[in-house]
Design a protein that fits this description.
The chain is elongated, with a radius of gyration of 16 Å. It has four helices and six strands, in the order E-E-H-E-H-E-H-E-E-H. Helix 3 crosses helix 4. The relative contact order is 0.19. It is α/β, with parallel strands linked by helices.
């Protein structure tokens, strides 16, 4: 039986866009909302596709963190005081959707879960989000680059 599940997680995190001209070039924070749709075959014993709490934990690693482009010159400065999560490019809502999908896919693969992240939305504000549908080759390229 193929099923689909949905999970919403909210996190607070800061970022800045290194290659952007405007306010978002400054370090600032958001209350991010991440919505995830997963499809696949539930486990024959538990009837669970993937535990909702696992999705929350995977996304939760970004909660109360600073997220920066790994090439950002602020990274070594801030790392003197706290951990920085780095991304292979500016941490836009578009890129975060891709990176979070990769994290979820890695978990599924390592735990032999037959699932596909069919859609993910990353809300940067109550009226702005990026939506990533169905797997694409960009995820594989970024996965190799991490």
């Amino acid at each position: 039986m193929k099923v689909g599940i949905y999970k919403e997680v909210q996190i607070d995190a800061s970022h800045r866009l290194l290659h952007y001209k405007g306010k978002c070039a400054n370090l600032h924070g958001h209350r991010w909302k991440v919505e995830v749709w997963v499809e696949g075959e539930p486990d024959a014993t538990t009837n669970i596709l993937i535990d909702y709490n696992v999705i929350k934990e995977i996304i939760g690693k970004y909660d109360h963190q600073i997220i920066l482009n790994r090439e950002d010159p602020m990274v070594p400065c801030i790392e003197k005081f706290q951990h920085v999560i780095t991304t292979p490019g500016d941490p836009t809502s578009e890129l975060l959707a891709l990176v979070i999908r990769i994290d979820l896919n890695e978990y599924c693969k390592s735990h032999s879960i037959e699932a596909v992240i069919s859609k993910i939305k990353v809300w940067e504000s109550p009226n702005s989000y990026a939506e990533l549908k169905s797997p694409d080759t960009c995820a594989e390229i970024l996965d190799e680059d991490r």
